[in-house]
Amino acid sequence: MRSLTRPEEVTLTINNEPREVIIYPGETLLYTLRGDALGLTGAKPGCENGDCGACTVLIDNIPTKSCLMLTVEVEDHSITTVEGLKHAPIQEAFLSQSAFQCGYCTSGFLMVGHALSLQGAADQGRLVEWLRSNICRCTSYQEICDAVQSVVRSEVE
Amino acid sequence: MAPFNLLYYRPDTVDQALDLFRILSKEQHHPAFYGGGTEILTRVRVQDARFDAVIDLKAIPEVLVHREYQGSAEFGAGLRLTHVANRNLWPLLTATADRVADHTVRSQITLGGNLLSALPYREAILPFLMSDSAEAKVATIGGMRTHRVRDRYDQTFKLKPGDFLVSLVVDGHEIQGLAFKSRKMTRIDWIDYPLVTIALIRRRNGGIRAAFSGWAGFPFVSSRVDKILSNGRRSPSDRAKDAVEHMPMPALSDTHGSRAYREFVTQYTLAGMLEELEEET
Questions:
Q1: What domain count does chain A have?
Q2: Taking an 8 Å Cβ-Cβ cutoff, which residues of chain B contact chain A?
Q3: Which residues span the domain enclosing A79?
């Protein structure tokens, strides 16, 4: 049985690297990632209520809102943040499609788009369903959708 | 947001989880069983809950069961809603569960977490409320107990403090080829709490069963409404109007929609669903 009742040093696998960090039992993954020890500020605090998606990271390649997950839950899982994408096709697509304005939501959308591109083919309905998890206040939705579409293989191909 | 003041435990067995709850309660803690965590963390964040310890059930094998077995389908309470939808053992459950929250959050929310939510909106329970065979396996200090879902449901699925939901079982024969419709109506956005979510099934004897979420502060079924909807001699729109007039409680009036608007949306949605269901079967 795993328990965490006081701050403890744990090893997390982030962007394919082991990272040691001290965590509190009630610490969200968003808080851990953005803290001084890790400094991975690509995941953004928005609503911190699971609505906006700005804090989205991948856990075992599945998009996850890091404000809604305790860090202790993901000790034995692979965490990917936007810092780990390193010129992934989705990033190039966002640039070429101008799929952002202020940029605050961008890392969350990138993570959803990247995860979808790893899933293989997806039709338009599935693409939209995944992207509905995130909010862009500048309303760049069409450009974001186009960018993700350009890296996700269509199911009809 | 600074770390929450929570103790965290992840037991490996049902007995460990039950013992932990008992011990923590005896030590004057306020433990909660923890599934996906989405509701507990959001409630703790706004200080709407007194939990100071969570018992994460996701390492317990019985809670993660997802299988067709001896003519039944079994769904562990710890299954993520996206897993339930992707495997699609019960298309009606897929249809209702796959409209909870958004896709990313559904990959965190568990079936048990949605069924036992403190929020009014628990779309995943609608199929189980309409089923004759649905049973819940509940872990108790006295051992594993099995209860018919409809017998234990009164606004919420009733559990004693310290007991937890392990899995739900439905008869494969009952759910195979079942004609159904499910629709979640929101005021503006696709992703929102529902004005009303309606699930309909057409039973093999032709009778209609309906379940509703969003109309009131809890999901419900009503035999009176089912009887009205099953009267195939009347038009779908007449039956829908009559059903709305004979709901067991008045519609909610809140920020999502007034009572009159909810009634209007429910009536025309119900009429359309009835028409589609009866055309197809």
A1: 2
A2: 1-12, 16, 36-38, 41-42, 44-45, 54, 56, 58-59, 101-105, 107-108, 190-191
A3: 8-83
